[in-house]
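Quick one: structure for this chain?
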Amino acid sequence: MSGNPRLIAGCEEWCTFAGLGVPVVKARVDSGARTSTLHALNIKSFTRRNRRWVSFEVYPLQNDRVTVLRCEALVHDRRLVKNSGGITERRFIIKAQIGLADQSWEVELSLTNRDNMGYRMLLGREAMIDRLLVDPAGSFLLGSYSAEQISSIYARHENARDGLKIGLLASNPDLYSNQRIVEAGRERGHDIRFFDIRQCYMKLDADRPEVHTRGGILLNDLDAVIPRIRPAITFYGCALTRHFESMGIPTLNTSQAVSRSRDKLYSLQLLLKEELDIPITGFASSPMETDELIEMVGGAPLIIKLLEGTQGRGVVLAETRKAAESVINAIKSLNANLLVQEFISEAEGQDLRLFVVEGKVVAAMQRQAAPGEFRANMHRGGTAVRIKPTPEERKLAVRAARAMGLHVAGVDIIRSKNGPLLLEVNSSPGLEGIEEVTGKDIAAAMITAVERMCEWQRKLAGTVPGLAQPGLNP
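Got it. Here's what it folds into:
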């Protein structure tokens, strides 16, 4: 038992972790939780002198995405921890010296994303043993900081624009997804700018290849490019992305991967090559094969898709054989290419969108078709709910993105009686619906992927010698 008298703590207190370089963080004091937890993002393990370490980023202030600290610590353990939602996660455990009032001692901290929680830190009962008694009716019984003091303490940690220079290649600067990516990049200290693909032009030169944007601005000094190419300008957008790649500028999704995903027939063939399940699909060039196509996918009802269609456009449900024949022949008469696909009736108008970043599913939602629609579509009145995909669905989505060569992908899956089936892999998935439904900061995950691609790291947070204790002038 410690020789220090026990402190009386309220239900929330200010803590310090000088050894990690965290000057102060507000913690929820919760004796119902066993393990203490610190909000951390971009968690990555590495080896130093034959020992396992972990680097991570801490956003210590609630609702503040600008103030960020990069920390490193020796890994003490990695264990399963159950979160407040009852879901078990495997987390890194570190040891750190905590400061409360005029006392300090070593505690175990699990590292996880607490962005949706009310506090950036949870102080659990293992850290309180022989140290703290809790008065649940009190707050900041061990001292408090004013807003001015917090601002002063973190002034030197404000995110200077010393990060990467990133170009976002897209068409509409007002689109939610593009605004969020720019916002997330700037929050993390990067110089990120929107460039309209249609206003960019290239110089093909063996000695001095260049990319310019309107006004003659040279873009050769970009550290990375995030291409978000809408289908109507796939050819030019991929050509532009390919030119950046030829100059040695990394792109979050490569031109080749985007091209693969945009060709519906080729993308399905690539998925089948990787032995991934899709609905039975038929393709033919001549209208003379209409009857055989319909039979090939099991007859009506069936789905008819234009190869060039996106976001649910150019997709038709033919409920009868006669309707299928009419639609197929009408489309063929316009010299347009189409696919026919079996109709999965047991899905009942639902599909899944899994968002994959760097080989990991970071968010997932289930979409329900609007009345009159045959499958979920957020662009045509559908609704959506957050879901926890099955391990099989996660694996399918990750493998599909890998088959396309995409680092960022929206993978659409439908649940059938024979298991999950792949519908489509989108190389420029929208963020608005899935961020709203899941509460996940997907834009930040994309920026983190760019940082890793460029092997960029934020400077380590320094220790904080002589840090003032709560309630005193810092």
